[in-house]
Amino acid sequence: GAGVSQSPSNKVTEKGKDVELRCDPISGHTALYWYRQRLGQGLEFLIYFQGNSAPDKSGLPSDRFSAERTGESVSTLTIQRTQQEDSAVYLCASSLRYNEQFFGPGTRLTVL
Amino acid sequence: QKEVEQNSGPLSVPEGAIASLNCTYSDRVSQSFFWYRQYSGKSPELIMSIYSNGDKEDGRFTAQLNKASQYVSLLIRDSQPSDSATYLCAGEDRSNDYKLSFGAGTTVTVRA
């Protein structure tokens, strides 16, 4: 498919465990974004990549959150020592021009 | 003032009617705007982009941008039950590396 893909689609983990979420952007899209959406809430910006660099990490909620991008393609968002308040849908989006962002299906994270 | 504000809704319209969604923006937001549709449990889907003053029509959707009054709207003509979703308005934040600033969303319910 030509769209943004994310894996896993669902992740259930125990409090204190680390999780890795993956995003495959649309081929050729240089910009990649991570958002968090809690149930019934709006989009919360986490981090933005232009190429492989992350000029803006201001949205990361704590130092437990980190992200990287390699080869101007795949990105992983890592959450260490997960907490129950981390439970949310994590959305990835990519864009090529004019900031038209295309979203992936998201990863639903549940921390027990 | 938030960068992008939407009338909170929810908005309920009968099938076949016009649904009108409005969004205002601050001086920090540049004049590229996007409307996303988000079905319950799904990720946002880009449905309209508008870059210049005036109207842009795509099927049953019309986006309107009024730079003087700093608002952007979305009209859904001949509303169908399948249009029931949350609609997100987004604009580029000039003061934030032109990243998208999203409104909180307006939930639309089309009554059959």
What report would you give on this structure?
- The complex is a heterodimer of chains A (112) and B (112).
- Chain A has 112 residues and is mainly β.
- Chain A has strands spanning 5-7, 10-13, 19-24, 31-37, 44-50, 53-56, 65-69, 75-79, 88-95, 102-103, 107-111.
- In chain A, a hairpin with a 2-residue loop joins strand 5 and strand 6 (53-56).
- Chain B is mostly beta strands.
- Helix content of chain B is 0%, strand content 59%.
- Chain B has strands at residues 4-6, 11-14, 19-25, 29-38, 45-50, 54-58, 61-66, 71-76, 85-93, 99-102, 106-111.
- In chain B, strands 2, 4, 5, 9, 10 and 11 form a six-stranded mixed sheet that branches. A five-stranded antiparallel sheet of chain B has the order 1-3-8-7-6, with no helix packed on it.
- The relative contact order of chain B is 0.34.
- The model of chain B has no long low-confidence stretch (mean pLDDT 92).
- Chains A and B meet through strand 10 of A and strand 4, strand 5, strand 9 and strand 10 of B.
Shape designation of chain A: globular
Radius of gyration of chain B, CA atoms, in whole angstroms: 13 Å
For the secondary structure, the number of strands of chain B is: 11
Q: Which band does the percent of strand residues of chain B land in?
A: over 45%
Percent of residues of chain A in helical segments? under 10%
Largest sheet of chain B: 6 strands, mixed
Protein traits:
heterodimer, A: 112 residues, mainly beta, seven-stranded mixed β-sheet, four-stranded antiparallel β-sheet, globular, B: 112 residues, 0% helix
Provide a concise account of the structure shown.
Chain A is mainly β and 112 residues long. Chain A contains no helices and eleven strands. The chains are: A mainly beta (112), B mainly beta (112).
